[in-house]
Amino acid sequence: MKRWIALAISLAICTGCAMAFAQRKPGPNTEPKTVQVGNLTRTYLLHVSPSLPPDKPCPLVFVFHGGGGNGQVTERLTQFSPVADREGFIAVYPDGIGKNWNDGREPYVSPSHRDNVDDVGFVSAMIDAVSQTHAIDPKRIFATGISNGAIFSHYVGAKLSTRFAAIAPVVGGIAEPFAPQFKPDEPVSVFILQGTDDPLDPYHGGGVAGGRRGHIIDTDKTVELWTRQDGCATTPQTGELPDSDPSDACRVKWSTWSKGRNGTEVTLYTIEGGGHTWPGGSQFLPKFIVGRVCHDFDATQAIWEFFTKHPKP
Questions:
Q1: Among candidate residues 199, 278, 202, the one with its CA nearest the CA of residue 21
Q2: pLDDT in tens, 24-57
Q3: Dihedral pair phi/psi, residue 58, rounded to 5°
Q4: In Å, how far are 201, 270, 301 from 216, measured between CA atoms?
C-alpha cells in the first residue's frame, strides 16, 4: 500500500505542477530557443531584458524545472525573470527530455535516466549558444532548480565545475549513485535550501517519493561532500532568520562554511517545518502532498544575492 501511495504522490506532483500553470505563455521578453545536442534538438526559454546593456558582460542564471515540469512552469513558479530585469542578468529556463533531468539517479527513474540523456552536454551547449549572441561574463554563470532540478543542479555543478561559479539547489540532494563519483575539478560555491518535512526528497536522504524515483543522500552528507571538495572551514557560522510569517509554521536556521578555495562558501538553509516547495512561492499543491511553503524569506531573491557574492575569481 505504501508503495502505491508513493507512486500516486509522485504522479500528482508531475501532473499538478504542469496543470498549475497550464495554458500560460512565457513572460514578456522570454523567447523559445533551440540547440542541437548530438541527434537531439533541445529546447529552452531565454529571458533577456530589453534594458540590458548590449556590450557589458552580464551574469547567466540557469533555472531547472522539477520532474514533470518544464521551463515555462519554472519561470512562473520562481519569478526569476522580474529579478533578472531589475538586477541585469540573463535567465535560462531549459526543458528536460520527457520533463526530467538525467541527474545521476538510478536508470529506472525516467526515460532520460534510462537512455542516459546527455543533459550536461545540453547545458554546456546552451552556455556556448547564449554566449555567441549576448555578452556573458564567464565568471558569473550560475544554476538553481527545484526537486529534480535541484538534484541536477548538484550534478551539473560538479560535472561542469570549470564553468559554474555557484549553484543553489532547492529541495533536492545529491543522487546516491553519483555520490561515490563526486569529484568536481574546481571549487563551486553552494547554497542549499532544504525542508525538514519534505515528503518527496527527504532531508536525511533515502528514497525519493518513497523510492519510486530513485535515491538521494543525506543533506548533511551533501554539505560534507561540497565543503570537503571546496576546502571550506570545518566549523560553520550559524544563525536563524527572523520568523517574519509565524502563520507558516516554519523556521529557518542557516549554517555557512567559509574560507573555501577561490573564496568559495557552502551555505545551508534548514527550513524547519518546510516541505517540497519553493520558499516564498505558491502552495502549488495541497500541504498533505508537498508540505508547507515557508514565507520567512524569498528564495529567488536570496539565491540571487548569494550568486552576486560568489563569482569565480
A1: 278
A2: 567 789 999 999 999 999 999 999 998 898 789 9
A3: -125, 165
A4: 8, 17, 26
Inter-CA distances, 281 with 74, 108, 207, 240, 299, Å: 11, 30, 25, 20, 8
**What pLDDT, in 10s, does the model give residues 178-202?**
999 999 999 999 999 999 999 999 9
DSSP states of 245-275: -GGG--EEEEEEE---GGG--EEEEEEETB-
Over residues 107-155, the pLDDT tens digits come to: 999 999 999 999 999 999 999 999 999 999 999 999 999 999 999 999 9
Cα→Cα distances 207→13, 169, 173, 177, Å: 16, 18, 11, 12
Phi, psi of 236 (to 5 degrees): -90, 160
Q: Identify the sign of the CA torsion 132, 102, 168, 223.
A: negative
Under DSSP, the state recorded for 175 is B
Q: How far is residue 228's CA from residue 187's CA, in Å, rounded to a whole number?
A: 10
Strand partners, 132: none
Q: Would you say 166 and 191 are in contact if contact means Cβ atoms under 8 Å apart?
A: yes
Tell me the C-alpha distance between 23 and 4, whole Å.
30
Sequence spans of domains, the chain? 2-308
Q: Taking a C-beta distance cutoff of 8 angstroms, is the pair 167, 187 a contact? A: no
Strand 40-47 versus strand 30-37 pairing type:
antiparallel
Does residue 214 contact residue 208 with C-beta atoms inside 8 Å? yes
The residues, ordered by sequence, that sit 6+ positions from 181 with a Cβ below 8 Å of its Cβ are: none
Grid coordinates representing 180 are 561515490
- CATH code that applies to domain 2-308: 3.40.50.1820
